[in-house]
Amino acid sequence: MVWPRLNNHPPTHQELAIMINASRETVTRAFQLLFLHKVLVREGTALRLTQPVLLKDIAEGRADPPKA
């Protein structure tokens, strides 16, 4: 599934951290785990969500987040 690019200036890890009241390091670790488990993949400068159902289940507490 390919999602359209919605923003030419995606938020930085720091900006995301501020939005969710977390540290930048926590956001970076979360992204690293999502990449490691192929939930997200990089395509050039874009990110592709490869497992949207899993990510939704994690967000809604129906699945455990991936472990390192």
UniProtKB/TrEMBL annotation:
Domain HTH crp-type: 1-53
GO molecular function: DNA binding
Pfam families: HTH_Crp_2 (PF13545)
Name of the protein described by the UniProt record: HTH crp-type domain-containing protein
Matches recorded under InterPro entries: HTH_CRP, WH-like_DNA-bd_sf, WH_DNA-bd_sf
Top-level taxon of the source organism: Bacteria
Coiled-coil portions: none
GO biological process: regulation of DNA-templated transcription
